[in-house]
């Protein structure tokens, strides 16, 4: 009897927490369909804020910037991080403490310290040499810096999970190291490479603080554009673009759910 | 690889080859992180010990002036502004971490009591909101807490806030935003702890006629402590350096250390002061990580707590 009350209380608390978690997102989505531009009262359904998005060139270029930034930085981080991950595995019997510290540094450093030290550095380098003008280039550099550790750790743990005799077998079978890389190593760690790429991509799209401090005047990404629009005074168009971003996340969540079920089955 | 029966010169050649391999694989990434993160951080730390120049840019001579200003000492004697900001950051971190624990603990337990096939779905439901951009999530709370919204009217009706004030901007809104933002960070490690809970210990306590409270305190709680501590580190460290949430939900009187630091690099520029704030944040981060390691070692008996 007592146990049932506990379970019921917990279920109630769970539902309450769920409402708490989804309320803000629901409100944003709901008001993106509001006919008037009031942020407090829903007056009727309309698509007008979505129609306005299509004509808003700032938003379109912010979207393009977000995509270029995420794809280019993820590709660079994948190559560099993969090399580190393999190096860490191959030389795991050596003392690599300094390398571990270096790899964990971007993960533990608070966002704001990360972003501001890069910004200060880029500004000074640009003042002295003319290189590294704040813009998409500096943002890519910053994003690669925080993506490398994640790629390296994912690739490293994939190698650790492999049977070490596989490497000996590959060595016996293939003549050149190049062949070994393309016919054995890359195909074996392909799942790790794919998940590392998607994680890097997500981290990049999700980032605001580091992008914000390393951006130039014409390299605003979607989060930076939304931030500016909120600061200037709220326009319902923000609801519409935010809802599209929430929808993208929901689709990814649904896909990951389907995959996890299939793996269970 | 075994070198038995190989001549010394061949062995040293193999070692050179291995070292070169290490260099080629690890060097690009290591150099990248050194140039684009270690160097800038070291530069920023140097800036903290320099003097504030005309446009907020750092100048020689070296001084501890920016640390004094961070503690509130300025040209006009002591003023509490910066000091309050520090206290507020600490307070917000403590309160929001405490609240997150209070919410996450029953939630993690609840998920662990559900059927196997439901658990991943319930966990996903907790995590998905944090996949959306932080700016958007905080914007959602701005919409919910603004003057004239149902929540604000309710608070007004209860006499909690002055009429037409709305629930944001306020310190309360910042706390709420922090709890919202960090809840999944606490649920995940706690859930992991509950999932591998040794139920035999709880049954033993019950067999020995322990009251439910004592059974919880002596048999359940110690087993979840490593997960709880991992969660505290995952929540408290980023909460202390939070920038977005206080900036949007806090207003001028809800500023935290992250905003103080960021402001020194934009509008009212004073790089050395901002850099001093950043150093403070770094110190707090490393104290947190170190404490976590110490406690983890004492509790876990060698089990590494993954961050």
CATH topology grouping of chain B: MetI-like fold
Helix content class of chain A: over 70%
Number of strands of chain A: 0
**What's the SSE pattern of chain A?**
HHHHHHHHHHHH
Output the structural class of chain A. mainly alpha
Number of DSSP E strands of chain B: 4
Pair with the most extensive interface? A-B, 79 and 75 residues
Uncertain stretches of chain B? 301-307
Q: Using the coordinates above, name the CATH class of chain B.
A: Mainly Alpha
Distance from N terminus to C terminus of chain A (CA atoms, Å) equals: 35 Å
Mean pLDDT of chain A, to the nearest integer, reads 88
Treating each run of at least 4 consecutive H or I residues as one helix, how many helices of chain B? 12
State the CATH architecture of chain B: Orthogonal Bundle
Global mean pLDDT of chain B: 84
Low-pLDDT sequence parts of chain A: none
Largest sheet entry of chain A: none
The number of distinct structural domains of chain B comes to 1
Q: Which characteristics define this entry?
A:
heterodimer; A: mainly alpha; 12 helices; globular; B: mainly alpha; MetI-like fold; 70% helix; flat; disordered C terminus
Report on the structure:
- The complex is a heterodimer of chains A (265) and B (307).
- By secondary structure, chain A is mostly helical.
- Chain A contains 12 helices and no strands.
- Chain A has helices at residues 2-31, 48-55, 57-90, 97-108, 111-129, 136-161, 165-173, 177-188, 190-206, 209-214, 222-232, 236-264.
- In chain A, helix 6 packs antiparallel against helix 9 (190-206).
- Chain B has 307 residues and is mostly helical.
- Chain B has a single domain (81-305), classed as MetI-like (MetI-like fold), CATH 1.10.3720.10.
- In chain B, the strands form 2 sheets. Chain B has a two-stranded antiparallel sheet with strand order 1-2. In chain B, strands 3-4 form a two-stranded antiparallel sheet.
- Chain B is flat.
- Residues 301-307 of chain B have low confidence and may be disordered.
- Chains A and B meet through helix 1, helix 3, helix 4, helix 5 and helix 6 of A and helix 1, helix 3, helix 4, helix 5 and helix 9 of B.
